[in-house]
Amino acid sequence: MSGFALVSSVAHAWSTLVDLFSRHAVAPLLDALHLRGLSDDPHDIAASLLIAALQLAIIGLVFRPLESLWPAERWEDRRLARIDFHYTWVMLVGVFPLFSFLVLTPLANLAGGGADAGTAGHGLRDAWPWLDRHPAVLFVAYYVVYDFTYYWMHRVQHWMPWWWAMHSMHHSQRQLSCWANDRSHYLDGALQSFVLAGVGVAFGIRADEFAWMMLLGELVQNFSHANVRIGFGPVLGRVLVDPTFHRLHHMVVDPQRPNLHNCNFGQVLAVWDVLFGTALYGEPVRPTGVADPMVDRDNELGLVAMQWETLKRFWGAVRCRAGWTPGDVAFDAHYRPVPVQHEAHAPVPAHGAQGVPALEGERVRC
Question: Coiled coil: which residue ranges (predicted)?
Fold first, then answer.
């Protein structure tokens, strides 16, 4: 069988599976819940859920075994990583599909981006119609813009204290694994989705294209978070994000080089870090997590408690002047952001957790 015939067969099988799942599962469920008028095409929802199932299978059957074969860090157990497994299931099968098709899609239709909006089209395919005849080129063009947007959004997540209050939950994990990518606060995830989907709407991207872009981005991020000692080499590693590259982004602050951790923000393309001077290569494997004890204690909480503690950090930051002042912060006992004086870092085992150095900061009034 030729390569083209194989691709055609796989595409046909996928289309048949999506159609069956849509007609016999998704559509009846939407009708039973009286959501058919609010949501998107059941076929698109079915495709999104099946893509999520495919992603879970790849993480569990490919990435997880690699962590046992070539680990970057060896752990006595995976106690801290287990909660991220639950986050991944909840996010991919529940939160993301619901948010995408019950919130983002109706907003896109109202903005004139839906298929039935009845307004003039917009986006790359309308600006350059020849792109519609070259779907691979169109997909790459969309994805470059999508990934570029993610890079700058990610930098803002670290730069703006009120957003870091939420994003810090993702960075609190001391056992970084292939399941850690979806360890995030749901409000943080919603905000990210609004930003990224907003770019998709502006460029006229369709729901099925957005779902496949998310799959590609999520799979690369699942792999880049994996606890594996795998790199892409000196050439490809300057273009694509690999696990050794992204693990440095999750390093605990180094007291001797306190700005070292502000690096490697790319999602799929490492080229943005190279171009904008945030790329870091050649460092040995470092412990992951955060030095702020108020954030580090996320590791001792369950899923609901972790969401609640993160929300309190966000509320303490967003209503405080320091929460809108760019820069690195820690959080005090009242969940208020405290500007960090990096040169004052010192290991303080009594306040840190499992050897994680505590951050020292100034007192701040909100």
Answer: none
Residue 251 per-residue DSSP state: B
- Residue 339: both structure tokens together: 């500007």
Q: Residues 6 or more apart from 173 whose CB is under 8 A from it? A: 80, 81, 84, 180, 183, 250, 288, 289, 298, 299
Please state, in angstroms and rounded to a whole number, the distance separating the CA atoms of residues 361 and 346. 11
CA-CA distance, 293 to 360, in Å (whole number)? Answer: 10
d(CA 350, CA 29): 53
CA-based end-to-end distance of the chain: 68
Write the DSSP assignment of 344-359 as a string of letters. Answer: G----TTTSSTTPPPP
pTM of the model: 0.83
Q: 59 CB contacts (<8 Å, ≥6 apart)?
A: 88, 178, 179, 219, 222
Distance of CA 139 to the CA centre of its chain: 20
* Residue type for position 33: L
| Residues 323-365 pLDDT 10s | 999 999 999 999 999 998 765 444 333 334 444 444 544 555 5
